[in-house]
Amino acid sequence: MTEHASSKITLRQLQIFLSAVEHRSFVQAAAELALTPPAVSMQMSRLSEALGAPLFEKEGRSTRVTAAATALVPYAERVTATLHEAIDVIDTLQGELDNLVRVAMVSTARNFGPHLLQEFKKHHPDTTLEINITNRRGVISQLEAGEIDLALMGRTPRRVEVDAVGFAKHPYVLIASPDHPLTKFRRIHRVDLKGHRFLVRETGSGTRMVHDHFFEEAGLPVPTAQVMDSNANIKNAVMAGMGMAFISEHTISLERMAGRLKVLDVTGMPELRDWYVLHLKGKTLSPAAAKLRRFVKEQGPQFMQEFFPETQ
């Protein structure tokens, strides 16, 4: 048999062959495989032709298996068994993929995001969650690269088309250390903030946009501010008296409870935005990812109210 001949042999032919050998009958093989006897006969003729050897011979009303067919049986069994093993492996792998959800969240969401996902996990224990916490730019890059299924962020990206669902309000406030002179005043106006020191995140971050917008909206120059690479560093710097900062109210619960930070009573604040769960537009979500998206949409509002009662 040449290599060209072997390329003509199909898996279906081997399956029919094994059934015909087992039953010693094309009729019974046809019944088992939901085929017609002529179809079985035709496929066995093609298999014999490809092999260059007869596989079955008629003996009256019965069918006799030839020596060539007997020699072929273990190889046909091996091929079909290998296929079944491959299918089992793929089924197992697909099951794992169907239960896997890759989630990225902006660093501002680190205070509640893992808790929200763990609440989902309680209801869907078979789900595997891969969580990545990074800055806004990193989340958008992962969305673009298809490295994540869902994202939690406070403002939808502009350069990437997404399907986004809002699930909670996201308040931004202005914070200062407890001994800052402005903590003694109520209804502080924007102009009163001139000359004070500020701490900000990098350009493009949500908190930086709030900072810039707060002054630009009033026609005031945006004050020069010291850039820091994380909300944690900003909070520590504010507590040390190095300046004030606009920040998500959802990131300062513990510091406020401990009396380490104060929220200033400033006109126009808090600035309310939204938290979103989103994915790339047109992306087909796995069953588990679709369940998580639905959970955040439906259960997220109640969860956030209970998790942040002081901001409601």
Fold blueprint:
Elements: H1 3-6, H2 11-23, H3 26-33, H4 37-51, E1 56-59, E2 62-65, H5 67-98, E3 100-106, H6 113-123, E4 128-134, H7 136-145, E5 150-153, E6 162-176, E7 198-200, H8 206-216, E8 225-227, H9 231-239, E9 245-248, H10 253-257, E10 262-263, E11 271-280, H11 287-307
Parallel strand pairs: 3-4, 3-5, 7-8
Antiparallel strand pairs: 1-2, 5-11, 6-9, 6-10, 6-11
Helix pairs in contact: 2-3, 2-4, 2-5, 3-4
State the main characteristics.
alpha/beta; 3 domains; D-Maltodextrin-Binding Protein, domain 2; 312 residues; 20% strand
Description of the molecule:
By secondary structure, the protein is an alpha/beta fold. It has three domains: 84 residues, Winged helix-like DNA-binding domain superfamily/Winged helix DNA-binding domain (Arc Repressor Mutant, subunit A, Orthogonal Bundle), CATH 1.10.10.10; 109 residues, 3-Layer(aba) Sandwich (D-Maltodextrin-Binding Protein, domain 2), CATH 3.40.190; 103 residues, D-Maltodextrin-Binding Protein, domain 2 (3-Layer(aba) Sandwich). It is built from eleven helices and eleven strands. Strands 3, 4, 5, 6, 9, 10 and 11 form a seven-stranded mixed beta sheet that branches. A two-stranded antiparallel sheet has the order 1-2. It has a two-stranded parallel ribbon with strand order 7-8. Strand 1 and strand 2 form a beta hairpin. The protein is rod-shaped. The N and C termini lie far apart (79 Å). The mean pLDDT is 90.
